[in-house]
């Protein structure tokens, strides 16, 4: 069951959409006014009230970054196509898995240890106390986004930095920046998706910067955000890119003239897919934008919509749509990425928000410690979004076989257990400088840097190391 939220979220919707940031243009003001009127009208309808009570907590986790972090609508970039990476590597044929040894001799202790590490489930575990702290901080990393820089913005409780993820079956090693850079030497890594993809990329850049400073070689900025960016590590001839694509498939984002996103589920988003032949590893992260009202297209037909009052379309929700979008994406990667070379694909699963109180009060995400395993159960929308992504990854793996490597970075549960890791009021500098805690914006969706999201990239590295070991075993 999905727990209904309280009236505080209604206040958040109306208040946040009415707020006009300083320096905002007239079009943006009109857009906010239009969105607000649509929201007010939403609560005047019985059916709408039912839907919003059921889905409102999750709509919030999208509307918060939409309202405060992204200028909507996103203006089409004059040239969103990134320049080609500085180099590409040679063709590699990837094995699907390690085969069992045919030797009759019992394995050595070292071999058993290595086998156990290979089979380790990094996604089943708990957060344990660790006094060592992160690899970087707000002074050693120059690429932390303003809204994630919790320490610089005045967060004083540092306990959220003193936890490590401990899988049940093994230990998760600390991040090794040199090892990661060696694995992507002469390669192009692309993070594709929404603001969670950007958050994970920012974390990775900070950890890699402890060994090699990345050079920004391309940036296409719209509003406050770099939607398409590229960094280069000269010593390793390695490239890491960011592609803004919140649906992965082709989508037209909502505007002042159309309050709905329009998704075309049978067409991959060419803003990133056109560069696919130049990518060696693709990290996909998406899902939050599917909670926003939208109309869904396939071919020349409209399949239906998600909350579109006033339109003569069938309400079909967003679960099946998310599945279709992921399937179209995988089919495109398999088709394009296997024409003479291989592509590695990682899907970072859906990460929950942790709003508990009013969005404009200090207690919006007040927790200062992780949940224990028995405290909270992964259920409702969190569990369903994760389930769909895992199922589609497994189906795509079966179809692709040896033509590409594809895995899920299943962080939903370990993220679910970290309500203490969000910026909260520290999405803005010194939110309580005047001693007024009554009205502050809160981000309970994204993650502080440094913070729990660094663990996503520690597990990513272990997956890459395991792939490399598989390759060597075939030599």
TrEMBL record:
Trichome birefringence-like C-terminal domain boundaries: 172-463
Pfam families to which the protein is assigned, alphabetical: PC-Esterase, PMR5N
Transmembrane portions of the chain: 55-72
UniProt subcellular location: Membrane
Boundaries of every Trichome birefringence-like N-terminal domain copy: 119-171
Stretches assigned to coiled coil: 371-410
MF-aspect GO terms: O-acetyltransferase activity
Topology relative to the membrane: Single-pass membrane protein
Main location: membrane
Domain of life: Eukaryota
Record-level GO cellular component terms: Golgi apparatus; membrane
Keywords from the UniProt entry: Coiled coil, Membrane, Signal-anchor, Transmembrane, Transmembrane helix
UniProt family annotation: Belongs to the PC-esterase family. TBL subfamily.
PANTHER family found in the cross-reference section: PROTEIN TRICHOME BIREFRINGENCE-LIKE 9-RELATED, XYLOGLUCAN O-ACETYLTRANSFERASE 1
Identification of the protein by name: Protein altered xyloglucan 4
Organism, scientific name: Vigna unguiculata
